[in-house]
């Protein structure tokens, strides 16, 4: 557990997140026949749930904000 700043103790050095780490992108493919036929709206609801888990779950302190979008290639 981190020690809070106080007399004689410096707080943690906080620096901006480097640009290459601000965005994470990727692709997902599936061979599941049911999931393969899901609409963009259905996939968007899945990623929206992931965003909620980042905002309110155990990792919430590590994220200032997050967004996710779905598109088909």
What does the model show?
The chain has 73 residues and is mainly α. Helices cover 29% and strands 0% of the residues. The radius of gyration is 18 Å and the shape is elongated. The relative contact order is 0.11. The model has no long low-confidence stretch (mean pLDDT 81).
List keywords for this structure.
elongated, mainly alpha, 73 residues
Radius of gyration, whole Å: 18 Å
Number of helices: 2
Biggest β-sheet strands, sense, barrel = none
Mean pLDDT: 81
- Termini, distance in Å? 45 Å
Number of strands: 0
Shape: elongated
Q: Which percent bin holds the helix content? A: 25-40%
Structural class: mainly alpha
Beta-strand content: under 5%
Per-chain topology:
Elements: H1 33-36, H2 40-56
């Amino acid at each position: 557990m981190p020690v809070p700043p106080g007399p004689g103790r410096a707080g943690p050095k906080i620096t901006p997140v480097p640009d290459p780490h601000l965005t994470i992108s990727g692709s997902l493919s599936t061979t599941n026949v049911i999931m393969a036929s899901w609409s963009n709206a259905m996939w968007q609801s899945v990623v929206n749930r992931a965003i909620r888990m980042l905002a309110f779950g155990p990792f919430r302190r590590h994220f200032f904000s997050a967004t996710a979008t779905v598109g088909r290639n």
